[in-house]
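Late entry, written up from scratch paper. The run itself happened at the end of the previous shift, but nothing got recorded in the book at the time, so transcribing now.
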Amino acid sequence: MTLLKKANSLNVFKVRRTEFCPPYFEVMTIDEKYNIIKALDEWIYNNLNGRYYIGKNLILSNETRILNKIKIGFENPSELSYFMLACPLLKYNT
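Output as recorded:
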């Protein structure tokens, strides 16, 4: 007997990943590593359900240096918490 999953309407209409990060998204930043954006995008798409943003971000440090970071944002704050606890790709980012 096979179990059928309910289709996610955000996936059907291809509006789940946003092109920009709205101000009401809960966000975090991580260091940029080789090919990490694609891997994080796949993990989020397969393990979470809500809308999200992932993209490159430039940050000025206290020493007036420009740092390349990856900004990840979620519409649902509980998804950010789950992402931070469960994503195995984050442990390689230290």
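The CA atoms of residues 4 and 46 lie 16 Å apart.
(Scratch paper discarded after transcription.)
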